[in-house]
Amino acid sequence: MHESCAVFGVYAPHEDVARLTFFGLFALQHRGQESSGIATADGKSISVFTGMGRVASVFSEEALRSLSGYIAIGHNRYSTAGSSRIGNAQPIVVGSGNNTIAVAHNGNIVNAAHLYDELTAEGYRFRTATDTEVIANLIISSKEKDWVTRVRYAMNRLQGAFSLVIMTPSQLFAARDAFGVRPLCLGMVDGGWVVASESCALDHIGAQFIREVEPGEIVSINAGGLESYRQPTRRRGLCIFEYIYFARPDSVINGQLVYLARQAMGAELARAHPVTADQVMGV
Q1: 12-47 residue pLDDT tens
Q2: Which of 4, 151, 221, 281 is within CB 3.0–4.6 Å of 11 for a Cys-Cys bond?
Q3: Model pTM score
């Protein structure tokens, strides 16, 4: 299952975070054109706006103005799990009161059906057919007290690929599966922090690329700054389709500009399978 959604998150108290997220998602439009959504938080509550279609058609000025706060996460969807309908658009918000979170996800969870059955038996109710709602409820279901440990609990139970942006009313989290199947990077913008599926989104909003979120890592961002929680990983497994197809040519993944990686693939192909041709093009 090759799936290429886009996730974006920003923690920036002095910025219009909904608008930054809009432009970040616009730069990541190639990763999903089915639906788009933004959720924001102001320290007390979470607001969300989603719609079917591309970023520019989903968000009007009125919609962006309605999304106030200093934290935002966003998502562009290309579905492989769950049908193409507005109910499956992300970010997905679950929980209530101080136990509310919004989640956006890029990847595929292999054991989602098993976890769904388990959570349903425990009394959790689902309104979508997405892996993402399973992840969100799995985090909420943890008996741990702090959010980092609750996110780690969910990560340890999930099997498959996931790059996540998670938001509480006052915190932003980014997390990546132990193999690092899907890309996720970290940047800074005007005293705030940004996470995105690809570095091209950071370029688009004038953010500075800092580093990639490591496989198995949880990044926590709040009023106290950024903290990293890492777990040792055995081996890495970035999906080769990122270099071949999914990613934008001007993104940098694992320190490699995607455009140059594709050029190198073409050169290798020419050496392995030389042909007399006037034109060669990637498909």
Answers
A1: 999 999 999 999 999 999 999 999 999 999 999 999
A2: 221
A3: 0.94
Q: Give residue 102's identity as a one-letter amino acid code.
A: A
Q: How many CA atoms lie within 13 A of 187 on its CB side?
A: 26
Sheet with 92-94, strands from edge to edge, namely 92-94, 101-106, 163-167, 172-176, 218-222, 225-229
CA 134 to chain centre: 15
**Catalytic residue selected from 5, 185, 200, 239:** 5
Q: Is 239 a catalytic residue?
A: no
Peptide bond into 91 cis (omega under 30): yes
Two tokens, residue 5: 């959604």
C-alpha distance from residue 270 to each of 45, 168, 241, 275 (Å): 56, 50, 19, 7
**143-156 pLDDT tens trace:** 999 999 999 999 99
Which of these, 243, 255, 265, 229, lies nearest to 182 by C-alpha position?
243
What is the C-alpha to C-alpha distance for residues 172 and 102, in angstroms, rounded to an integer?
10
Q: Which of 272, 241, 243, 245 is nearest to 260 (CA)?
A: 243
- Angle formed at CA 127 by CA 29 and CA 28, multiple of 5 degrees: 10
The two structure tokens encoding residue 170: 């006052």
Least confident piece of the model among 1-10, 170-179, 210-219, 228-237: 1-10
Torsion from C-alpha of 149, 154, 157, 160, nearest 10 degrees: -130
Question: Would you say 249 and 243 are in contact if contact means Cβ atoms under 8 Å apart?
Answer: no
